[in-house]
């Protein structure tokens, strides 16, 4: 793998948004109320996360982050997402999701920070929904490889766990695509489990195999115990 990957992240983001739209349109009224892997969030809150992220004008986003939330990104994301999800019906959330995510030019917090992190964020949030629902998600092979190449570069600038730091000093091997990276104690798993585990999903961490898993678990716990925000995830069984 080259030192830095070269992908059209705008195109990848739009592909993930199209898949998310298809998923949301397929949900029953009961499924909109289903818990997700994000603790305290139902499906409607993740939809609200996207709607808020793409609809709130950037100046308002900056004011909210700086003045109201004192640059506490996790708190801002949580409160804006849950409020948007609670105050709107599924029909309204769908309409607003499609309106803003298919716009020719995106706006809002979704345009702030590295686009590669938004790509991975969008992919992860679909698994946050589909795993508890027991709906296996079919991701194109080339997009899986793009996600894995991106994973090891993530620095956590948008509130995501710094997966690249956790991957350093280890050899990662995907079991569902031809991909490997790094040197050191080996960690093997599916694309989904590698991505979810290195971005803080404990349920996926438990599914990885290899001599490097114990060290990864230790380093992630140490990072969280030093005061880094802990991902709030539910321990549902992973569906591949």
User: Under the CATH scheme, which class of the largest domain?
Assistant: Mainly Alpha
Q: Strand order, biggest sheet? A: 2-1-3
Share of β-strand residues: under 5%
Oligomer: single chain
Number of continuous helical runs: 11
In terms of per-residue confidence, which ranges show pLDDT below 50 for 5 or more consecutive residues? 228-240
CATH topology of the largest domain: Four Helix Bundle (Hemerythrin (Met), subunit A)
Q: Which helices and strands occur, and which strands form pairs?
A:
Elements: H1 9-25, H2 43-55, H3 58-68, H4 73-87, H5 90-101, H6 115-133, H7 141-151, H8 163-167, E1 171-174, E2 180-181, E3 186-189, H9 191-198, H10 202-205, H11 213-225
Parallel strand pairs: 1-3
Antiparallel strand pairs: 1-2
Helix pairs in contact: 1-5, 1-6, 2-4, 2-5, 7-9
Explain what the structure shows.
With 240 residues, this protein is mainly α. It has two domains: 9-133, Up-down Bundle (Four Helix Bundle (Hemerythrin (Met), subunit A)), CATH 1.20.120; 141-225, no CATH class. 53% of the residues lie in helices and 4% in strands. It has helices at 9-25, 43-55, 58-68, 73-87, 90-101, 115-133, 141-151, 163-167, 191-198, 202-205, 213-225; strands spanning 171-174, 180-181, 186-189. Helix 7 (141-151) packs parallel to helix 9. The radius of gyration is 17 Å and the shape is globular.
